[in-house]
Amino acid sequence: MATQSSVIESTVPQAQDEWTRQSCGFYSCPKCKQDLEPAYDGFSCRVCATTYPILRGIPDFILVNLEESRNRSLRVVGKNDSRPPLDFMASVYETWIYPYVCNLYGGWHSTSLERLAHDIAEIVGSRDGLILDVACGPGTYGRRIASESKTVLGIDICMSMLRQGVQYVEKGHIPNVYFARATVEALPFRDGLFDAAICAGSLNHFSDTVLALREIGRTMKAGAPLAVMCFARINSGLMKYKWILDGAERGGGHIDTVADLERYVAKADFEDFRPRVYGSVLVFSARKSRQSISVNAQRRPLL
Question: ∠ CA 262-268-269 to the nearest 5 degrees?
Fold first, then answer.
């Protein structure tokens, strides 16, 4: 007679297999954008003959060593990911780090995570469907938007952040939030999948802003809203000081003017750019052009 523990152990793999089969409905190969098939402990692409593992419930679509990337931010994450210091940083990211950053760069009490989350949710609106959360961290914004009618698919390069996000989702019993490890330059989703997209806090780290926005736009439906939070060169907050800007660039980032960002958004085939300013913190909305033709964005390898 089977014991209760053996029954539980036998049903866990079945549930994981069922989740993998369902996930094939929205994940695609980040290389060729073709459909994926369930494989042992992961996904398989027949076209590329590539298998992507699932690590503790999180699909991993990055098969290269980030420590060898030309992007300094990727190298830093690649070197420290899943180690105690970065695990700890992920655990206090929303409670300590975010309030500090908002006050330091935005200006004292100029904004807050609650204010920014409200703005992002307002841009996404009441529409149902699939929401892309790019560079999601522990699901900081996606968790606050997800519902029974909104499914959020978050991607990030940092497994420490993603695992923290899974803990938050499980502890809070938050429905319809899924995480995967992937880069913004090679999103593991097919064309025109998403009803809205979020990119909050990482646009300044992408090596090529237009390329990143184009790849995000490729996965969005025509007319779908984009909600972005980033830092900008504004004559207020810390970003008005040259030594701060120079330090950001030495660290592998870049701080753009609002006019530059509007130009990048248009180049990436978005329209209706609308900014909101909080010191040096910028929230802006845009929409995927309704006249756009769904084609795969040209990519310049960054890894």
Answer: 95
Q: What's the CA gap between 73 and 253, in Å, rounded?
A: 8
Inside any domain, residue 302 = no
Q: What is the total count of domains within the chain?
A: 2
CA angle 105, 138, 281 (to 5 degrees): 20
Q: From the centroid of its chain, how far is CA 102?
A: 19
| 31 token code pair | 């290389």
Phi-psi domain of 215 (left: phi exceeds 0; alpha: psi -120 through 50; beta: other): alpha
> CA angle 112-117-119, nearest 5°?
100
Rounded Cα gap, residues 150 and 172, in angstroms: 16
Helix, coil or strand: residue 297 = coil
Selection from 116, 118, 104 nearest residue 283 by Cα: 116
> Domain containing 119 — which CATH number?
3.40.50.150
pLDDT in tens, 192-245: 999 999 999 999 999 999 999 999 999 999 999 999 999 998 877 777 788 888
pTM of the model as a whole: 0.89
Alpha-carbon distances of 38 from 16, 42, 163, 268, rounded to whole Å: 11, 6, 22, 33
- Nearest of 216, 177, 174 to residue 199 by alpha carbon: 216
Do 34 and 110 belong together in one domain?
no
Q: Give counts: helices (H), strands (E), the chain.
A: 10, 11
14 and 154 within one domain: no
User: Are residue 30 and residue 119 in the same domain, yes or no?
Assistant: no
Task: Return the bridge partners of 28, or none.
Answer: 35
Last residue of a domain, one of 14, 30, 55: 55
Do 76 and 150 lie in one domain? The reply is yes
Q: By residue range, what is the domain housing residue 42?
A: 1-55
